[in-house]
Amino acid sequence: MSTPDESSPQGFWAELRDAVQFRTILLIAGVLLLQLGFILSYIGAFHAPKPHQIPVAVVAPAQVSQKTIAGLNGIASSPVKAEAVASRAAAEEQIRTGETSAALLVNPSGTEDTLLVASGGGKAEADAVTAVITGADADQQRTVTTRDIVPLQSGDGRGLSGFYLVIGWIVGGYLVAALLGVAAGARPLTARRAVFRLGAMVPYAILSGLGGALVADSVLGALTGHFLALWGVGALLVLSAATVTMAFQSLFGVIGIGITVLVFVILGNPSAGGAYQSSLLPPFWRAISEWLPNGAGTDAVRRIVYFGAEGITGHLLVISAYAVAGGLVAVLIPLLRSRRSAANPAVTAEATD
Fold it and tell me: At what angle do helices 161-184 and 293-306 cross, to 10 degrees?
């Protein structure tokens, strides 16, 4: 009687189970969720941009000012938030420092008003506020002439150069950290190794910030006159993206790379205020915009180039907080694991992914 040949091929289902393991299926499902999240986030943010409480200064005689403000603030869905300003000079100062987005100068002796805007603060926002004010004036049988007092630089197209510069810096930061993790183990075995990895990120961040500033300023002439400031912001953004990626890898292994993509790509990019500024985004994306490095970095670059760096302190603190928190988590997690293993010899160090 013949016995089965141990070298004979596996059955179909057994071979399929060997080829496609359950862990692989989970990873594929995770990729599918990220893909659908990408589609949902980008279309959700951009499919129907609507202005929401764009700040507008109103310069008009006292007897006209309150009526004008009440009319603007009474527009359905609140596209603008109008406030009285004493003079044209004060209104222009607010626009040039990024404190307000536009100013309506009401002509008390005629029917033609003037609207001051700043396309440097966002072309989409400037266009949106122009449309709202033009419509409001038309309802009152008035006309409006628009003047751009903070125009875009000649090489900045529709004002998207800063946004793409920030995306490039952030992508570089999380990619280099992810590649280092894949090459050497997503979870550092020791806190010392985590410190070494963090140390390697510092010169990379400096070089990456320098390279981005050189391309945007010297090579392409897209954002000129602020080289050192852009270099500094770029280095900080790269470092924050890298350390956050390392933190997620320390916590979750290879899955941490997917979480990094969720934070920086799926949530961060559409909420950053690039193509559409935060005042034009739906509530969720508007709410998270300034709390993620993408949005903080985009507005910081915009303010450096067009508004004399006014109002960037909060953005720099947000980006720095990500860098510091990411670095601490990346070091503390392997340290805690090592101490737990030392306290309980039966528990071996967790294997790297």
Answer: 140
